[in-house]
Amino acid sequence: MFKIGEFSKISNTTVRTLRHYEKLGLILPTTIDPQSGYRFYEANQISTINKIRMLQQVGLSLETIKEILEKQQADVLNYYYEIKEKELEKEMEEINKKKEMIRQLQNQLKEGNNMEKYNVVLKTIPARNVISVRKVIPTFQDEGELWDLLQQEMKKGSVKIAPGSLGISLYHDKEYRETNVEVEVQLEVIGEYENGETATFFEAPEYSIASVTFSGSFDQMPQVSQALATWIETNHYQVSGPMINISHVSPAHDPNPRNWVTEASFVVSLNGKK
C-alpha cells in the first residue's frame, strides 16, 4: 500500500485532488490509520484514477463519472457517451458557423463596403391566382414544412401550376423575429379551387418591389439587405409591405448552396402608395 503522498506521485494526481475525489466518493482510501489519520491506497486503484481522468477529458462531470463507476454497466457508459457525442457535434456545428462568419468578414474586408455586386432593380409582381399556405412557424429554417403542406394540398385537389411559376415566400412580421415567425408560401395556379385544410386560393395583389437576384447561400442576406436598404433610401422609396423571396433555384431543386439562385425583395412605394 502507498501513503497518499506516494500514491499522488505514482498516479500523477495531486493530494488535493485525491481528497476531493474521496469527498465525492469517487475513489476512497483502502485503509485509514485510526491513530494517525494517514490514508493508504493500493496500486490497482491507479486504473480507476486513469479512467476518471479519461472520462473528464471527454467532458463528463465528476457526478456523472461517479454514477458510471458505481454501476459499472456498459449501457450506462454508452448512454453518457451518446449524450456527449451529440453535445460535441452541436459544438462543432457552432464552431463551423463561427469559422464561416470569420470567412465572410475576411471577404468583406477584402472587398470593402462595395455593394455594386448586388444590382437592385425596381420591378412589378403582377396580380395572379395563387395557392397559399400561411402559418406561424418556430423559425425561418422550418419554412420547408410550409412547402410540404402546399404540395400535399396540390395533390389532393389536382391543382394545376401556371407555366413558369416560381416559389414565392412572404415574411409578414412587422419587425424582425428569430422565433414564431409568420411566413406565407405561394405558387401561381391555373383555374379556381376550393380552399383546403391548410391552403387557400385567392388573387394575390400586384406588388412593386425593390429586388436583388443573387447566387449562392443565404449567408449573403446581410449584405443583400444592406444593398436593398441603400437603394430604397437613395431613391426615396419606403418599405410598404412584406419582404418577399423568390426561389429560382432552391434547396429543393439542388442541395448544393453554390447553385442556389434567390431573388430577395421588399415591397416598396413612393408616398406610401403601392
UniProtKB/TrEMBL annotation:
A Pfam family matched in the record: GyrI-like
Sorted UniProt keywords: Coiled coil, DNA-binding, Repressor, Transcription, Transcription regulation
GO molecular function, one term: DNA-binding transcription factor activity
Location of the HTH merR-type domain: 1-71
InterPro entries attached to this UniProt entry: AraC_E-bd, DNA-bd_dom_put_sf, GyrI-like, MerR-type_HTH_dom, MerR_fam, Reg_factor_effector_dom_sf
Coiled-coil region(s): 81-115
Protein name: HTH merR-type domain-containing protein
